[in-house]
Amino acid sequence: MEKHILVLCAIFALCMVNNANAIQCYKCKSTIDGGCTNEALDSATTSVKVVNCDDEPKPNTMEQYMPVTRCNKVVSSDKAGPIVSRDCHFQVVGTKPDVCAVSHNQQVDMCYICSGDKCNSSSSAGRFVALGLTAILAFVSMQFAL
């Protein structure tokens, strides 16, 4: 029985690990690419580009940024109305990990930060649901195997 619990813990840990720094994110801004406003993106059907965050230039400021391991989807607004942008999440050293910043005098209305390649395709928590279901399925399968 202990062996089965150990296997389950190992499977769950592997599901939760983000083992690479070279994360890929969708990158777009609705003022330039109308497809950026779609609720969900699919790399097979969208024209929105996917970028390797290790290859993307950091924002042009004097601040220090941590290695990029997450993506974001930000909905902001200005005088012209709402603006949707998707990008690599650049976190400044010493700041909270769940803070999104935008340039120019825009108000952040919604900030969604996620881990995993192309996770900023929507604002749902689908990845965590999938991981949870995988862990539950593994546990139930092991119980029936006993």
How would you explain this protein's 3D organization?
With 146 residues, the chain is an alpha+beta fold. It has a single domain (22-139), classed as CD59 (Ribbon). 24% of the residues lie in helices and 25% in strands. It contains two helices and five strands. The protein has helices at 2-16, 126-145; strands at 24-29, 49-52, 70-78, 81-88, 107-115. It has a five-stranded antiparallel sheet, with no helix packed on it. A hairpin with a 2-residue loop joins strand 3 and strand 4. Helix 1 runs antiparallel to helix 2. It starts with a helix and ends with a helix. Mean pLDDT is 76; it is low at 6-10, 12-20 and 125-140. InterPro entries: QVR-like, Sleep_regulator.
How many distinct domains? Answer: 1
What gyration radius follows from the Cα positions, in whole Å? 18 Å
CATH architecture: Ribbon
Overall average pLDDT: 76
The order of strands across the largest sheet is 2-1-4-3-5
CATH class division:
Mainly Beta
Helical fraction equals 10-25%
**Overall geometric form:** globular
Poorly predicted residue ranges:
6-10, 12-20, 125-140
**Total of helices:** 2
Query: What structural class results from the helix and strand content?
Result: alpha+beta
Strand % is: 15-25%
- How is the main sheet built? 5 strands, antiparallel
